[in-house]
Q: What sequence folds into this?
């Protein structure tokens, strides 16, 4: 498979006439100009993504991509790798934070086994797309071969295309995956590595220093992995690569893409380095408390909807943000205008 086959062309959504019509519709609602703040910005974005003055959110799909990381063997996480498969079971049993939020908001939650080091019994809510039993140790070589990385991206595209609806909410699970996100941010964003590394699952000071030292060695080990796909293969993970494919396909299909936090943001960063117009389809849910996330949002030049000090991952921030998207669509469709309500306009 060539890069051209793997990476679809994502056109810009620029439509000056539609943008003007949407803005006029928003401005003529029975309110002072701009008084709904960033909810108005969200209305405009959703309308432009869907190409209509009346956007509708249909059958939203919350996909939690899960995989293990070979680098976790070096103690870069506060938790053992077995937590990856155990949390997948927790998601499927309905006991995780994202499970509760998905249930509350009527979101279809599916867990994608992109590369968990565990064999799961098939069941509803589990999509088995395993490429390998986890990524490799990045101190020994690339996390994935070029072929494995391409296969994961392609699998993400195919998987997303088969899902119904017009909204993708991104989630993830993988012990060690904040390390991959930090490495990708440093390499693709051009930031000092130390500024990209946080405490992940709750490292203490000594563990954080150890993580910083390990990741510095990893980055030195892969000096030529500078392009998006080569960096993804060398420094990423199977769940991140599969998310890249899902994001590219969702963007191609003009689905709304709700980006959760640091790790899902890393996948979107890779996808946007391949096809910049991907970002025009994205809504960034929240600013994570993970150290590198602010830098990532700055690098992407985006502003998240929420800042609640969260750093759980799983898609929890995306799910928590969901009612804001619903409100944006309903206000745009149902709120009266000055003309329809017979309310006097500003003098």
A:
């Amino acid at each position: 498979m060539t890069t051209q086959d793997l990476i679809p062309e994502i056109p810009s959504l620029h439509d000056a006439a539609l943008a003007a019509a949407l803005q006029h519709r928003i401005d003529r609602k029975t309110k002072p100009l701009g008084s709904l703040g960033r909810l108005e910005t969200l209305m405009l974005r959703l309308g432009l993504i869907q190409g209509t003055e009346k956007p509708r959110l249909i059958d939203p799909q919350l996909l939690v991509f899960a995989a293990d990381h070979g680098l976790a063997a070096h103690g870069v996480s506060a938790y053992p790798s077995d937590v990856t498969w155990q949390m997948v079971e927790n998601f499927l049993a309905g006991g995780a934070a994202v499970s509760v939020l998905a249930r509350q908001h009527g979101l279809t939650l599916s867990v994608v086994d992109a590369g968990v080091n565990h064999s799961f019994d098939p069941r509803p809510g589990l999509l088995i797309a395993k490429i390998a039993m986890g990524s490799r140790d990045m101190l020994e070589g690339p996390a994935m071969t070029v072929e494995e990385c391409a296969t994961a991206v392609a699998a993400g595209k195919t998987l997303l295309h088969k899902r119904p609806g017009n909204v993708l909410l991104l989630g993830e699970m993988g012990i060690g995956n904040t390390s991959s996100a930090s490495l990708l941010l440093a390499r693709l964003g051009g930031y000092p590595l130390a500024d990209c590394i946080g405490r992940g699952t709750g490292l203490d000071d000594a563990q954080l220093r150890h993580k910083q030292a390990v990741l510095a060695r990893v980055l030195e080990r892969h000096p030529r992995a500078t392009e998006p796909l080569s960096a993804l293969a060398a420094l990423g993970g199977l769940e991140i690569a599969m998310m890249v494919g899902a994001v590219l396909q969702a963007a191609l299909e003009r689905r709304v893409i709700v980006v959760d936090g640091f790790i899902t943001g890393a996948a979107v960063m890779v996808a946007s380095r391949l096809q910049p117009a991907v970002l025009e389809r994205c809504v960034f849910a929240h600013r994570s408390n993970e150290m590198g996330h602010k830098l990532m949002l700055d690098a992407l030049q985006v502003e998240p909807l929420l800042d609640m000090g969260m750093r759980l991952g799983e898609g929890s921030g995306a799910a928590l943000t969901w009612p804001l998207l619903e409100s944006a669509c309903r206000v745009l469709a149902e709120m009266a205008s000055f003309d329809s309500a017979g309310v006097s306009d500003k003098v």
About this structure: The beta strands are 61-67, 108-115, 126-128, 167-173, 256-259, 282-284.
